[in-house]
Amino acid sequence: MKKTIIAVSLHMAILIAIIAVLGSASGTVEQEGQAQFTGELERNVVIRILENDTAKEQGYLQELLDAFNAEYAEYGIVAVDANMDQYSDLENDGPYGYGPDVLYQANDRIMRYVAGRHIQPIPVEQLDCYSEISESAWEAYTTEVSGQEYIFGVPVNVQGPLLYYRKDLLPDNWEEDWDDDKNGVPDMVENWNDMYAFSLWRKSQGNETFGYMKSLFDPYFAVGYLYSYGAYSFGNNNTDPSDIGYSAGDSELGGWVIRQLASIMNEWCIDDTITVNAYNRLARGDYFATMTTPDVYTLFIDEMVAEGMTREEAVENLVVTSIPKLPASGDLSEGNPELIDSKMMGGVNGYAISSYTKAPNACLAFVNFATSYEMMKLRSEMLGVVPARNDTVLEVGGLALVINRSLEEGNIIVMPSIKENAQMWTPLQTFFTDVAQDAYRAENEVKYASLEAIKTALQNVDQQIYDAIFTLQE
Question: For residue 326, which of 271, 258, 248 has the smallest C-alpha distance?
Answer without folding.
Answer: 258
